[in-house]
Amino acid sequence: MSCGLGAIILVLMLVKHDVEHVSDESERLTADMERLKKAEEQLSAEVANTLRSKAATTGEVEALEFKISKVQREIDQTRIEITARRGEEEDLEETIKTIEVKDNTDVVENRQVGEENYLIGLKVEGKRIGILIDSSASMMDEKLVDIIRQKNMRASARAQAPKWRRTRRVANWLLARVPSDSLVGMVSFNETARKLGNVSEVSGKDAAGLGHIAADLNEIIPGGPTNLAAGLKAIKAFNPTDIYVVTDGLPTAGDSGYRSLNPFSGCSALWGGATSISGECRARLFRHTIDNSGLMKVRTNVILLPLEGDPEAAVFFWRWSALTGGLTISPAGTWP
What we know:
Elements: H1 2-97, E1 128-134, H2 144-151, H3 155-159, H4 162-176, E2 183-189, E3 193-196, E4 202-203, H5 207-218, H6 228-236, E5 242-247, H7 279-291, E6 299-304, H8 313-324, E7 328-329
Helix pairs in contact: 4-5
C-alpha cells in the first residue's frame, strides 16, 4: 500500500515539473513573439521610410536630369551664337582692313570732335579763309530774358555764358580744319570789329599762329549790338576767297551814315534815336549791309546759332549764302 502511494506521489511531482517547464517555455516564446513583433514593426517602419526616401530621391534625380538637359540645350545654342558672332567679327575685320584711314592733319587740337563730326555739306576750304565771329550780347544765350540777365553780370561770368562757350568751340572747330596750304584770318565783331591773332594772316600749318588766334578769342567778353557791316569791312581787308560767319541773327547796328538813307527813315535806333530796333529795320539793315559789302562774289557759309525772337534770320542768311555758292546751317545743340 505504501509502495503504491509513493509511486503516485512521484508521478505527481514529475507532472508538476513538466507543467512548470512548459509554462516557462511558453513565457519565453511569448516574449520572443513580442520582440519579433516589435522588430517587424520597426522593420516595416524602416521599409516605409526607405521607400519614401527612395521616391523623393528619384524625383530629385529626375528634376536634376531635366535641369541638366535644359542647360545643355542652352550651351549648344550659345555655341551656335558664338560661332555666328565670330563669323561676323571676321567679316568686319576684313571690311575694316579695306578702309583707308586718313591721318589727322589738324594743327589745332580739338579733343571734343573727331573726323566723324564734320557737318554734312560743310567743309573748311579755300585759299584765303576769312572767319567772322559775332561777339555781340546776344551770343551769350538763346533766350532774351537770359541775355538781359547775363548782360548785368561780371565780365568773367559773361565770358563763360553757355552760348558764348559754344561759339568758341565752333571757332576752334573751324580753325582745326583749315587746310595746311591755306591762309586764314579771323575777325570778331559787335559794335566794332577786331582782328584776332598777332598777324593779319596765318598759314594752316602754323600751329603757333593759329594758337594766337584762339587765345585772342578766349579773351573776348561778349556784349554790345551786332554791327555786321563793321565785321564784313574788316574781313574784306583780308581779301578772302571763302568766308565762314558764326552768328545768331540779323544785325542791330550799322554805320552812322545810315541816317541819311531813305530806306532807314523810320529806323532811328540805328543812330541812337531809340533803345530797340524793329524786325523790319533789322531786315532792311541786313539787305543794305550785304548789298554794299563788296563780297557777293566770295563764297560765304553761315553757321547760325539759335536766338529767340528772330525767326526770319534763317531765311535772309540762307539767301545770302546761296547767292554766293555757300550754305547756311543751323546745327543741333549737341554740336560741336
